[in-house]
Amino acid sequence: MLPCGLAVAQLAAWPGRPLATGEPLPAAAVATGVAVTVVVAAALLWRRTAPPATLAVVVAALTVGTVGVSADALLVISVADLVALYGVAVWRSGRLALGGTAGVALWQCALIAATSGVTGEYPAEVASVVIVYPAVVAFGRARHRWHADRATAAARLAEAEDRRNRAADTERRRLARELHDVTAHHLTSIVVIVSAAQRLGAARPDLAAEARAFASRTGRDTLAALHRLVALLQRPDERPDPVAARLDALAEGFRLLGQRVGVQAGEAQEPPPAATEAVCGITREALTNILRYAPGAGVRIRLATAPAGLELTIDDDGARADGPGGLGSGRGVAGMRERATTLGGTLTAGPRPGGGWRVRAVLPSPSPAVLPPAAGVAVAAGRSRRRPGSAQVIDAALVLLALFAPAGGLLAAPGDAGPAGAPVPLLLLVAAAHAVPVGWRRRRPWTVLGAVAATAWILPVLIATGVIAPAHGWVLPAGLGAELIAVYAVARYARRHDLSALAAAVASASAVLAAGVTLALDTPSEQDIPLVFGAGVMAAVVACPLGLPILLAWLTGWLVRRRRAGIESREHDAVAASTAQALWVAGLERARVAAGLRAAVLRDTARVATAADAGDLDQVLTSARAALDAMRGLLNGLREEASGPARGDHEPQPTAAALPALAERWRAGGRAVALEVRGAGRVLPADVDLSAFRVVELLLAGDTGPVAVRVDLDDDPVRIGVRPMPADAGGEIAAGLRARLAAVGGSTTTAADGLPEILLPGTVPPHPDGIRPDAARESGRGRPAGEQGRAAGSDPGRPAGRNEEVASSPSA
């Protein structure tokens, strides 16, 4: 509507009014003026989408109009360059806005010199250009920050909404990891040890006593761990113990099981609570795997601060021994990797050169870009001292604006300074004293208002004492802009906004009374009117002309403050509501899991220690298996709920072979998806097969337009290309892609067409520490769970009773 309004006002003012009154106008000038008006108004329609081009068109058109039409004819449309420059400042970078300001200001100064000549008024015109154009850009940059703040608030709200939607699943996954740790560390060990003692009881009767002692001690430890878990479910904000102490406690527990565990964690800085939980969870899982596959091996745990972040390394000597298989949940390495990637880190696991096994996790340190509040304020303050920001430019421009009317009038026609010969500089000093306090309007609005109200009386005092002639009293109402700015500042920025209406009353009373006294002092002496009476009459006369603008200034500031505060309050309330909802949902999940633990797991675990104290190994084994079954039932239920509803026939299983079905599902939704798969049918590692599907699914979900997908399964590495790549303004797709690639050792590269291409390893990738990929397949820990079971069952060195015991256990 702004371009249309400017065009209508310009055409009505010129050439409409002269033509309506019958004033003759040159046809060429009319045609030029109308054409310039239409072009400028049309260009301003793109001031948001293409502001630099709009500014260029407006400047060119106004140049033609100034040359082809008289100077005052296009007065209304001539403000279009300010509108276009404001659009550049709002919608483009600060550097571009600064360059545009310099260019347009130079153009305007040159245009004034070319059309009006360099006369005595030229310096004042140049000064107005230097003041107005930077001020317009400063207001535009302030608006730019407002839009940026709103975009940030919208992103926070979207993140909070996403957290709320994922709160239940996230909490289920976290609790599933915790329950898995308890299962692997405690209950599985009891089943293994007691089963072995019963099987070998005839040959080794001493093992029964050791098994009872172990079951009693570990059962109590398990019960204590479960009670702590239930307590943490009720108090999720409880800070954990130091990471070194927790690692020592873990190591001590596994030393009691016969492992030789050393811990070196003194060099590492204390990580955040989330990283501490990840470190302890990864360590517990790694030690459990070592106990299962290499019992008695020496283990070294090292936690240190590295350049890449917090580095956790767990090495074992790899002394293989026949250990029971099939008791794990199949989430060992995957669970450890999930803990690391959740925090943005990486995890690798595989054989070490020369034997043994290594688990290495790197968790990123907190970003150094996130500064403490004091540091952030210091940096901002230093930056503002080096280069003024838009707020400082606006404040300076408002000071000059408040000073412009009185100073301009004095400089344009200084005249006689008065009977006492007071120089014009004194009047300029009075006007400056009245306007300069406006520069502190944001930080001290009430103080600024008091200073402006007080300095309004300097001129009446100087007139009353004869220093300045009464004829110069016009300087007072000319400086009314300072009162307007001060009152607006109080309504907009003052802390006690409920008292801001007093600002309008104070400023109005001061300005009106000062003007009344000034006018009364200018009354001819022959009328012999008392000063107080004359001042009262004159104050009543000027009350409306002076008081109404002040009241409107206060109302404007009050409305702006109310609107902005309402927007920010709604944004804050929406984020708070979503966050509270997420916490409430997560709390429900914790309460549900805690109830499940109390109902079954705690009861059966308590029976383990009681039966062990009574010497009843059969009851120990029965209770341990019952607790294990209850724990795994709760664990599996959490995983199934976290993974969502069961897939129907219309939803493909997440493998590379299901990519055509995935593309067909998108086509059924109305999207054009072209899919080319080379080497279909190739057998890939399970995690790579899943990752190929998830990568394509992630990239397809990032946009809605036509897309071409090419998947080459013949090559090693597997190559995936999506054209065009989806837009990713918020970085969500890039973050998901990094996590997916980190989980399988994938990477990105640039294809021949210059666009990104995703690479996934077609075989098991080599370990960064020199671990052989084929060794991972030869090791039981590098095989899928099914292959481990087959290998264990076909091992000629394994006693037959071991396999039978595992097959008959509940975990089989």
Describe the structure.
By secondary structure, the chain is an alpha+beta fold. Among the domains are: 259 residues, Heat Shock Protein 90, CATH 3.30.565.10; 105 residues, Histidine kinase-like ATPase, C-terminal domain (Heat Shock Protein 90, 2-Layer Sandwich), CATH 3.30.565.10. It contains 26 helices and ten strands. A five-stranded mixed β-sheet has the order 1-2-3-5-4. Helix 6 packs antiparallel against helix 7. The longest helix is centred in the last third of the chain and has 84 residues. The C terminus is likely disordered. This is histidine kinase.
Topology, element by element:
Layout: H1 2-20, H2 27-44, H3 51-68, H4 80-91, H5 94-116, H6 122-199, H7 206-234, H8 243-255, E1 260-264, H9 273-293, E2 298-306, E3 309-316, H10 332-342, E4 346-351, E5 357-363, H11 373-386, H12 390-412, H13 424-435, H14 445-455, H15 458-464, H16 475-478, H17 480-493, H18 501-521, H19 531-614, H20 617-642, H21 659-668, E6 673-678, H22 686-700, E7 707-712, E8 718-723, H23 732-744, E9 747-750, E10 756-760, H24 773-778, H25 785-794, H26 800-808
Parallel strand pairs: 1-2, 6-7
Antiparallel strand pairs: 2-3, 3-5, 4-5, 7-8, 8-10, 9-10
Helix pairs in contact: 1-2, 2-3, 3-4, 3-5, 4-5, 4-6, 5-6, 6-7, 6-9, 6-12, 6-19, 6-20, 7-19, 8-9, 9-10, 12-13, 12-17, 13-14, 14-17, 14-18, 15-18, 17-18, 17-19, 18-19, 19-20, 22-23
Domain Histidine kinase/HSP90-like ATPase: 282-365
GO cellular component, one term: membrane
GO molecular function, one term: protein dimerization activity
Q: Count up the helices.
A: 26
CATH class of the domain at 170-367 and 581-641: Alpha Beta
* Radius of gyration, CA atoms, in whole angstroms: 40 Å
Query: First CA to last CA: what distance?
Result: 74 Å
Strand fraction equals: 5-15%
Q: How would a crystallographer describe the biggest sheet?
A: 5 strands, mixed
Helix content: 55-70%
**What is the CATH third-level topology name of the domain at 170-367 and 581-641?**
Heat Shock Protein 90
The largest sheet has its strands arranged as 1-2-3-5-4
Structural class: alpha+beta
* CATH architecture label name of the domain at 170-367 and 581-641: 2-Layer Sandwich
CATH homologous superfamily identity of the domain at 170-367 and 581-641: Histidine kinase-like ATPase, C-terminal domain
Shape: elongated
**How many individual β-strands?**
10
Poorly predicted runs are 235-239, 320-331, 367-385, 416-421, 645-652, 764-812
Look at the structure and give the mean pLDDT: 78
Keywords: ATP-binding, Kinase, Membrane, Nucleotide-binding, Phosphoprotein, Transferase, Transmembrane, Transmembrane helix, Two-component regulatory system
GO molecular function: ATP binding; phosphorelay sensor kinase activity; protein dimerization activity
Protein name: histidine kinase
Domain Signal transduction histidine kinase subgroup 3 dimerisation and phosphoacceptor: 171-237
